[in-house]
Amino acid sequence: MGFFVVCVLKEAKTIVSDKIVKVLLTDCCQFYNVFNIATNNQFENLGGIQVFLRKPPEKWVYVEEGLQGDVSMLFELNFTHIKFILEATETTVQERPNAIDLIMNISQRICLPEQKKEDTRKDLLYNNIIKLFRSKMVG
Asked: Which domain of life does this protein belong to (predicted)?
C-alpha cells in the first residue's frame, strides 16, 4: 500500500490538481485504475493519455506503456508523484470559422448576375437566359 500525489492535465490546463490517492497493489495493477480513482471515472474515452512519474527533486519520467503500465514500478522505484496528461482530440476542438476564409470561399463561388429592368427586347432575352440558367442550377 502507498500514497501518491496525482494530478491530471489537459492542454496545459489542470483538471485535477494535486490529489493524494491511496494505491493498493491488490486493488489495482495498472495506471488505468489509478487514473479512474483520481478522476472519479469522469472520463470515458481514455485514448491518448500520457503517464509521467517522479520523485520530487528529480525530473518527470515518461511511462512508455501509458495507462497499461504496471503500478508496481511505483513501489519498486520509489516514485511519489503521478501525472496524467490528456491529449487534445480533434473532435472536441470546435473552432469558429475564420471571417477571411468565409469571404474568400464566397468570392470564389460562381454566381449568376442580377436580372435587368426589361426596357428593351435585349433585356428581356438577357433575363430569360438567366432564368434558364437558374432553372438548370448553373451558378
From this structure: Eukaryota
CA distance 55 to 105: 54
User: What's the per-residue H, E or C state across 33-59?
Assistant: HHHHHHHCCCCCCCCCEEEEEECCCCC
Domain boundaries, position 38: 2-86
How far is the C-alpha of 14 from the C-alpha of 8, rounded, in Å? Answer: 6
DSSP 119: S
Q: What is the pTM of this model?
A: 0.59
Q: How many domains does the chain divide into?
A: 2
* Same domain (yes/no): 71, 30: yes
Beta bridge partners of 50: 85
Identify each DSSP E strand in 11-128 by its residue range: 13-23, 49-54, 61-63, 81-86
Position of cell 428581356? 124
Q: Taking a C-beta distance cutoff of 8 angstroms, is the pair 15, 38 a contact?
A: no
Q: Is residue 98 part of a domain?
A: no
